[in-house]
Amino acid sequence: MEGAAILANNIKKTYTSKKIEYVALKGVTLNVKQGEFVAILGASGCGKTTLMNILGTLDRQTTGELFIDGVDTSTLDDNELCTIRNQKIGFIFQSYNLVNYLSALDNVLIPLMICNADTPEKMNDAKNLLTKLGLEGKFQKKPLELSGGEQQRVAIARALINSPSIILADEPTGNLDSKTSDTVLEILTNMAKQSKITIIMVTHDPDIAKLADREIHMKDGLIIKESKSSIKKSK
Ligand SMILES: Nc1ncnc2c1ncn2[C@@H]1O[C@H](COP(=O)(O)OP(=O)(O)OP(=O)(O)O)[C@@H](O)[C@H]1O
Ligand SMILES: [Mg+2]
Q1: Using one digit for the tens of pLDDT, what is the confidence trace for 53-65?
Q2: In a domain, 56, yes or no
Q3: Minimum-distance ligand to the CA of 25?
Q4: Which residues fall within 8 angstroms of residue 144, CB to CB, at 6 or more apart?
Q5: Which of 6, 62, 78, 222 makes an SS bond possible with 32, Cβ 3.0 to 4.6 Å?
Q6: What pTM did the predictor assign?
């Protein structure tokens, strides 16, 4: 378990809706090292988002164990889980999930507001992050006044503001054109390399998956194949 940012052991997830049970995860075991960049691939409906939600403690598994930085999450109550989620994990979603009535700057500060840590110092951090991501001069814009790529960069800044050790990105470039997608991926991978952040990223795109250290292929609620990336990274 040592050095593992995330250790998932035989995770199963059954959804029950209208008395009908659906087994979305059938026993997923995954060990992601600190600083590792893992890509998750698989057809629509195979359980990728379900797995990401469980790894990020947004949802609980039906059975199986989940350790985050060596801590068994089953021993934590909802408050403790919330603290881990807020301080250790940054989420990036396909649909950005920004709050439309808040400015770009305030969207970045959301994770800090949640734990009353939105100090003037942190406000500066947020501005620096947005500037690094090419959004200088757009701090006060609302999400709908920004392009898709700009909104996703605000979401990345929000995911990074608490200096998380783990980033969970569920198709972060799914809604972006290929040029903007490249920019977003470069930002993400560079930041991860510099700060040794662990990244788990869902993607449909095999070329994007090649940027990762390891590819994990899922089918029908199971991991069916794993491969190390063949591309030698320049950074
Ligand atoms: N809340 C829910 N209740 C019932 N079934 C669900 C629920 N969420 C997901 N499922 C089912 O679980 C399966 C896996 O869903 P999931 O969202 O994890 O797929 P995915 O791999 O992320 O797909 P996509 O690539 O389309 O995003 C699907 O068949 C879906 O219908
Ligand atoms: Mg999904």
Answers
A1: 999 999 999 999 9
A2: no
A3: 1
A4: 100
A5: 6
A6: 0.90
